[in-house]
What we know:
The chain is α/β, with parallel strands linked by helices. It has one domain (4-70, 84-108, 125-142): Rossmann fold, CATH 3.40.50. Helices cover 35% and strands 18% of the residues. It has a 5-stranded parallel beta sheet, sandwiched between helices. Strand 3, helix 4 and strand 4 form a beta-alpha-beta unit. Helix 2 packs parallel to helix 5 (131-142) and helix 3 (55-65) runs parallel beside helix 4 (84-93). The longest helix is centred in the N-terminal third of the chain and has 15 residues, at 29-43. The radius of gyration is 14 Å and the shape is globular. The model has no long low-confidence stretch (mean pLDDT 92).
Amino acid sequence: MRKRVAVIHGPNLNMLGKREIGIYGGKSMEDINNDLYAEAKKLGIELECYQSNVEGEIVTFIQQCRGRADGIVLNAGAYTHYSIALRDAISAAEVPTVEVHISNVYKRESFRHVSVLAPVCIGQICGFGPYSYILGLHAVLEHKVNP
């Protein structure tokens, strides 16, 4: 059976390529998704990409991954720093989740240095531009529950 991975883009990521290009680069979310679908095809996995600016919709999508996805690659954007609801959804879904960020959050404002999601994720990747998503995809596929 083929592995299934969900990629979740949080708030404002639908504006990639149009906003703060100096921080996030010129690729659009659609460009990133196309790169991810191409990588998934090479890897022989099923991939589903999802974006929402609404916290509750992301919570619902994460919950729906339980039992149908083998992994989640999540860029929760600003929700990373304060959404206990997303943290609880990740924990409840029991799907290995990798937190990704396009920018290196540790080189930015201090409020971005804290992730409330990190303790319930298997790992965090940041600072590699849009390639952070590809790295996250590989990381979630390589994850072993009991290494």
